[in-house]
Amino acid sequence: MGFVSVLSFAHHLISQRTQPGDTAVDATLGNGVDALFLAKLVGKRGSLYGFDIQQQALDQTEMRLRKELPDASSFFHLSLCSHELMESVVPADRHGRVAAVTFNLGYLPGADTQTITKQESTLPALNAALRLLRKGGIVTIVLYSGHDGGSQEAAAVEDWAQGLPLAAYQVLRYQFANASGQAPYLLAVEKR
Question: What is the rounded CA–CA span in Å between residue 88 and residue 30?
Fold first, then answer.
């Protein structure tokens, strides 16, 4: 058997805290893998909000959701905007009630590698995610440092996570110690 991948471990942590009827957020839609996973967890009674700055990401995510979950359009809401605006898009009655928010930082696989997530929008987005989160909810952040700008963003996110008060949040790191220094790794933040 073996250890699970970083993304699989993030999904495991999310699945322990998310159930049908919940609200979840995919802060970086990419190719829609996380969005589909979250949509299956929250189901028709729940809500999924997704964000990306590239239309290609929204198109790919919507196509994936419609293919796998034909009735999903009633409960997913995709926005072509920066993840730092999530708090203004997620309805006010859901603030403080979100079960999970997931981030995959970096760039959209198969697209322009110059369009990347940056700490200037990621840090405000992470703070917004914490405000949206319910007690016992989770924020997962998969960090990729192997591209231009990736190590700077990862360092800023690390500093942000280390500064969170232990009385309010627990932060977990999942990383393969003998992998390349540029291998992706996970930070997971649970709201106490």
Answer: 21
- Contact indicator for 38, 64 with CB cutoff of 8 Å: no
- Beta-strand ranges (E) seen in the chain are 23-26, 47-52, 76-80, 98-104, 133-143, 169-174, 185-191
15-65 confidence digits (pLDDT tens)? 999 999 999 999 999 999 999 999 999 999 999 999 999 999 999 999 999
**Which CA distances in Å does 173 have to 10, 143, 156?**
10, 11, 15
Q: How far apart are the first and last CA of the chain?
A: 32
Token pair of 134 as six digits: 């319910």
Q: Is the pTM of this model over 0.70?
A: yes
Q: Yes or no: say if 61 and 50 are a contact pair by the CB < 8 Å rule.
A: yes
Q: Are 116 and 83 in contact (CB under 8 A)?
A: no
Q: Which domains does the chain have, with CATH numbers?
A: 6-191 (3.40.50.150)
> Alpha carbon of 62 to those of 35, 71, 178: distances in Å?
9, 12, 37
